[in-house]
């Protein structure tokens, strides 16, 4: 289940999302948040999603666990190569790039991998709380880790959106590959920073665990909350539930 909105300020939606059960036996979800002038961010995020999906759709069935991790990393690195090559060939696309957060599972399974670059995030959300599974590749997060500023100051920092790692901006890039597992009562959330910069984790958690709403309504509510808080950026959310949750997927 995914939703995306241009927001209340931007003229173009540079976010892209994709969720599917592939014919070769894998479930995938991807969120990319593009950046760059002349609508280059829109092109970068589209290329990222299309390349990753194409690479993963070509995988053989029933890969071993470590092969699965390597396949996801290779797909994201292929996207990096594609975006960087196009940007280097056309001046108006110079320095375009995108974030990416993607999950890959064998179909029907709840153990897989997250691939991540940038500040789009993955969360595991359940009755017991909300856990951020990815680490933002931002200047402000580096300052927090080094103890130069505190978490509260980071939320208001004027350079909080400056990335130190992105997809497509450099010829070589490191992909964070994170094992992920979720239980029957858990939901996975992938999102662009248009959600997390507008809505705090407590409100995200209370919305996602609301049992009175189908998954689609919870995704719509998250989008609405970001827009009501100002909608300063494009907003994209993907919600994934356990195959045995007995709810809308």
UniProtKB/TrEMBL annotation:
Top-rank taxon, per record: Bacteria
Domain PPM-type phosphatase residues, every copy: 1-242
CDD domains named among the record's database cross-references: PP2Cc
Gene3D superfamilies recorded: PPM-type phosphatase domain (3.60.40.10)
Annotated transmembrane regions: none
GO molecular function: protein serine/threonine phosphatase activity
PANTHER family tied to this protein: PROTEIN PHOSPHATASE 2C, PROTEIN PHOSPHATASE PHPP
Name this protein carries in UniProt: Serine/threonine protein phosphatase
């Amino acid at each position: 289940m995914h939703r995306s909105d241009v927001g209340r300020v931007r003229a173009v939606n540079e976010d892209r999302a994709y969720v599917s059960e592939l014919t070769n036996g894998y479930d995938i979800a991807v969120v990319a948040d593009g950046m760059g002038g002349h609508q280059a961010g829109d092109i970068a995020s589209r290329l990222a999603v299309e390349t990753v999906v194409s690479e993963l759709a070509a995988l053989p069935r029933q890969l071993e666990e470590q092969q699965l991790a390597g396949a996801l990393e290779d797909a994201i690195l292929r996207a990096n190569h594609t975006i960087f090559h196009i940007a280097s060939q056309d001046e108006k696309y110079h320095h375009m790039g995108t974030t990416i957060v993607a999950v890959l599972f064998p179909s029907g399974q709840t153990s897989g991998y997250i691939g991540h670059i940038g500040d789009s995030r993955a969360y595991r959300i359940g009755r017991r709380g909300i856990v951020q599974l990815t680490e933002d590749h931002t200047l402000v997060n580096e300052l927090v880790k080094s103890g130069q500023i505190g978490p509260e100051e980071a939320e208001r920092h004027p350079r909080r959106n400056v990335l130190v790692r992105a997809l497509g901006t450099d010829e070589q890039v490191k992909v964070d590959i994170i094992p992920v597992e979720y239980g029957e009562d858990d939901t996975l959330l992938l999102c662009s920073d248009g959600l997390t910069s507008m809505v705090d984790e407590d409100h995200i958690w209370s919305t996602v665990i609301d049992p009175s709403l189908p998954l689609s309504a919870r995704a719509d509510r998250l989008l609405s909350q970001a827009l009501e808080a100002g909608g300063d950026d494009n907003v994209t959310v993907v919600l994934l539930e356990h195959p045995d949750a007995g709810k809308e997927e």
